[in-house]
Write a structure and sequence with these properties.
- By secondary structure, the chain is α/β, with parallel strands linked by helices.
- It has a single domain, classed as Phosphoglycerate mutase-like (Rossmann fold), CATH 3.40.50.1240.
- It has four helices and six strands.
- Strand 2, helix 2 and strand 3 form a beta-alpha-beta unit.
- Helix 3 packs across helix 4.
- The longest helix has 14 residues.
- The N and C termini lie far apart (about 35 Å).
């Protein structure tokens, strides 16, 4: 059994004239990354590997999730090839995950994410929004044999639009 938690980066800022890869998170993106990361702790398996695109907004999203979910950002593997908007390329990358890892958390980009989720999930999702998380399970023992799986849960900012995030207080 393999489990994939796929996270679309949070909303990025368009305030400065930057290359796409260099765009940081917007205020709304920062807020939503905190909000959603605090809602998914029950989805996390005991052990996992974490991958992120090299884009600034994706790395910043992974950093916020790591702070709120109490895993070290140093454990996030930055993968250049995850800076893709192509679902076929995303599929190829996921299939390269080592089989010693049953659980993969991946921070990436749309439209690759939405198309991937709809190809391999059992529920149609019109659009995985920024800060959206989709947890999927596959009845396989080998990532290279990736096939249709099951969407366990989807968590989107719109589900919590009337909530403000409250940072965790460590005592």
């Amino acid at each position: 059994m393999k489990k994939l938690i796929i996270v679309r980066h949070s909303k990025s800022s368009w305030e400065l004239p930057l290359n796409d890869i260099d765009r940081p998170l917007s205020k709304r993106g920062i807020h939503n990354a905190h909000l959603i990361s605090l809602k998914i702790s029950d989805l996390l398996p005991k052990s996992f590997i974490i991958w992120s695109s090299k884009a600034k907004r994706t790395k910043e999203t992974a950093m916020i999730f790591s702070q709120n979910l109490l895993f070290s950002y140093d454990n996030v593997l930055i993968k250049d090839e995850l800076y893709t908007f192509d679902d076929k390329k995303l599929e190829e990358i996921i299939k390269k995950c080592e089989n010693m890892y049953d659980n993969l958390i991946l921070f990436g980009h749309n439209e690759a994410i939405t198309k991937f989720v709809n190809k391999f999930g059992d529920l149609f999702i019109d659009n995985v929004p920024t800060s959206g998380v989709v947890s999927m399970q596959f009845d396989i023992d080998d990532w290279t044999k990736l096939k249709k799986g099951k969407i366990i849960e989807s968590i989107f900012p719109s589900h919590y639009k009337h909530e403000q995030y409250k940072s965790k207080q460590i005592h």
